[in-house]
Amino acid sequence: MKHFFKALLSLSTIALLHSCAEKQETENIILVKNPLKIDRSFETVEVDTRKLNLNIDDSLQYFQILNLKTKDTLTSQFVDEDGDGTIDLLLFQPPMESLSEKKFKVIKTATLRKKDTINRCFSRFVPERTDDYAWENNKVAFRTYGPTARKMVEDNIKGGTLSSGIDAWLKKVEYPIIDKWYEKTVTGKGSYHEDTGEGLDNYHVGASRGVGGTALKKDSTYLSNTNFDSWKTITNGPIRTSFVLTYKAVDSSGQKFSEEKHISLDYGSNLSKFKILVDKVDTLSVGVTLHENQGETTTSKKEGWVSYWEPHEGSELGTGIVAPGNTLLGFDKYVTSRKDLSNLYAHLKTRNNEVVYYAGFSWKESGEFTTKEAWENYLTSFSEKINSPLSVEVIAEK
Predict the structure, then answer these.
(1) DSSP, res 53
(2) What is the distance, to the nearest Å, from the Cα of residue 310 to the centroid of all Cα atoms in its chain?
(3) d(CA 192, CA 196)
(4) Is the CATH number 1.25.40 carried by domain 122-367?
(5) Which tens digits make up the pLDDT trace of 181-214?
(6) 5 pLDDT band (50/70/90 cuts)?
């Protein structure tokens, strides 16, 4: 009997060790699938970190994404999206061939991959130039204007700006330029209005919608907010920059129109993503300025985009808006003699007090999209991808 219990204990121990070994060998795998018959790159995969069971500490820069087949590591970024001190999202951009699927896992390395720490996607509040908020990636740069710039206009002080429009900074280099351009302008050592090889700001916004500014249609006119009132940077990094701008309500015929804009820009994209939170608004209008109305407008309700291709300071420029799903309700080429108020509008349906769209541009001098047709093909492809996104699943494998 004594030998029997010893044997039983031994078997139990072996079973327990085997069970522990099984648990240790089980790991969370990130399965990514491309449902389209096209190769895809520079599309961001978002993974909820709670599903990965990571022991995340203060050395996040040492975590890497490993392609299980090729054993290559990919650039990645962790994001605390809600600002509660806990990491919410893991971001990376896997190249995906047509109708392919790939497996990845998170590993912790002993050495830091330097390219993962570079803020290729960057945004910040700019108090030294009144109070802009500016953002950029390797393709494009933007800015918009804050409350000090508004008050300067109200107080008749030179240098103010009264606008919630989105300004385009026409860069033609892949490295960051925001800090450099502001510094040379503020210090008087140069001006971002002059092209010294990197590009320049010669895009006029004024009171227009610029590249993706919002408005509320009232009868035959459009109501828009002025400058943002507060800002909050969420993240900067190699994959994404994101931030939040809030706008006080403006009142028109008893209807108040307030906004909270969640804006992000990912690496490799010409379009910023806008998530606009509104209250008691069924349809929000989003516009691109027509300037002197010398360009060509194109719209596609089926594919959910609007485009404006125009001559610009001796070159050419394409601007556009892309809306996902069936949220694009219609268009309006609104032309008026009032300065800066001619815009091509896309009317977007709100869902649960929220509107999502993408807006951006391409400058011919950057060498990427040099014709109207190439720019519109990009918008069509962008629309197809956001409506058939890469699927992401966290699975447990041994």
Answers:
(1) T
(2) 24
(3) 9
(4) no
(5) 999 999 999 999 999 999 999 999 999 999 999 9
(6) very low
Q: Does residue 238 contact residue 227 with C-beta atoms inside 8 Å?
A: no
Q: What's the CA gap between 155 and 185, in Å, rounded?
A: 24
Dist. CA 222–CA 217, nearest whole Å = 4
Handedness of CA 182, 186, 190, 195 (dihedral sign): positive
**Can you tell me the distance from the alpha carbon of 197 to that of 191, in angstroms, rounded to the nearest whole number?**
12
What token pair was written down for 398?
């041994």
The DSSP H or E segment spanning 2 is helix 2-25
- Would you mind telling me the total number of residues written for the chain in this entry? 398
The domain ranges of the chain are 27-110+391-397, 122-367
For domain 27-110+391-397, give the CATH superfamily.
Answer: Golgi alpha-mannosidase II (2.60.40.1180)
| pLDDT, position 12 | 41
Distance in angstroms (rounded) separating the CA atoms of residues 289 and 282 = 23
Q: Would the pTM count as exceeding 0.85?
A: yes
pLDDT for position 313? 95
In the chain, what's the furthest Cα-to-Cα distance? 103
Q: What is the pLDDT of residue 113?
A: 61
E strands in 172-229 = 199-200, 211-218, 221-223
Q: Rounded to 5 degrees, what are φ and ψ at 5?
A: -65, -35
